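Continuing the batch. This is chain 6 of the set; chains 1 through 5 are on the previous pages. Same settings as before, nothing changed between runs. Recording input and output for traceability.
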Amino acid sequence: MKLPFRLTIHRKLWGLLLFFLVIMAASVATTYLGSMRISRYLDSNEVETLRHTVALKNNLNEIEQSFNDAAAQREPALIVQAEQISHEFDDHIAAMIHGDPGNAARYEKIKKSFHEYFVAARSGARQLLGGEGFSSSVLLSAQKVNTILPSLREDVEKLISNKYVLFEGMLTLATGAAKSIVRREIIVTGFIALIGFALVFKTIDSILKPIDSLLNATEELGKGNLTIRTRVISNDEVGELARSFNDMADRLENERDKLEESRQKLTQLLQEREEMQREIVKNNEELKRANTLLQKADQAKSQFLASMSHELRTPLNAMINFTDQIIEDWEDLKNNDEWFLEAREMLVRVLGSSRHLLDLINELLDLAKIEAGKMTLDLEEADLAGIVRECVLSVSSLAKKKNLPLTADFTGENTPIKCDRRKVKQVVINLLSNAIKFTDQGEVRVAVAAAPGGYRISVSDTGIGIPEEYHARIWDRFQQVDSSDNRKHAGTGLGLNLVKELTEMHGGTVMLSSVPAGGTTFTVYFPAKAAGGETVKAG
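Output for chain 6:
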């Protein structure tokens, strides 16, 4: 007897899927409502004001250090650096006034005290750099600084303490709400899990029982028992299959068509055999390709070991020779000014070789992290143009040694980005160092421009260029255009691979445009917000 409504397997499975979809939707809605409840306890303006308050303290420390270093090292550039930091201090004050207008008078007072301190400190530093020594005006500036600075620091510290108290209160309320939501979610999830387990068990049982019965009947039929029949205990596809099986058994019993059945089985076996043979041929071809790739990988490893031995041996030999010569002639240094200057130059070279070795080791460590899948991004809000300026300052000495103009072009000052600051600097410094290394005359230029959803950084040079057949290979690890032992330009072949890996971890891209003897341009695109969450794992 057939029921008017068939509860088929499809309907059972779709019913289970719908049940879990409803549960998931309910869970998402509950989680969303809980998050909205928690968010009511967290005032984003207070959190942002706390961040700016801590930044004020850091700016104050950096400005004081810059003025002290400028006076000690006779370096005017440090005064310019202090002026740049003072602009950041003003920006933080403006943001705090905008986010917390109720305390605007307090913030304006701190700003006024800061400018009085800054003017006095800058005046004293400039007078010292001008050779005035500890004149009365210098002492007057120092006295004013010593009067204003402690009070200014105390005001900033009090401000930080007040903001931390407010922040801790918000966190306490939010934590209590979160615990309440988690407890409720655990209870509801456990209850739903029990119901879901019961439904899944019941559904599986309603499917497997008739299938087991049908399998047993099939086994008996395979043994030649043509009188076997299976019970039809469900009205779904399996029940329909059971009825079909019984009909087939009836036909087999009447017709005894064992010969046809044997022929069909033999045909099926032959087809499976042919399929297996095709799989064997396919596997052999894949094995050959894998062997070829292994050979290439082994060759790349050998080239890398040879390159690394050359790269490590050169700076080490220089460090050993220069140090040995200075130690041997140490007594002569006391009486020979010319040899003293030459020894100092040797020590400078030893320092340069040490830094070169450190760069090689850092590249190897970054490569090891990427291969192990442990490279992560520590995302923070930053100014991309400011990062590029720092990179230009870092490599300016390299360009100066080769008398190469190093210029920077920024189409706009407002370039906010959420990224891993250190890794972005590593990308830009690697590209600038390569451009300087492979350029003997002309210039090196870096530019930052806005792009859809992010920014483009272009590093251009007028150097030797890269042949087209190497455009794809230079991104691979350990690959160099010139890999001979007596090559003119040193390197391990890891720099551009790290540029590509670190850029793609941010969700960006890097492109190359170059012709031999016509210069090279690398263009890196970074999205304004790096892909993924606060921490992104490589690999």
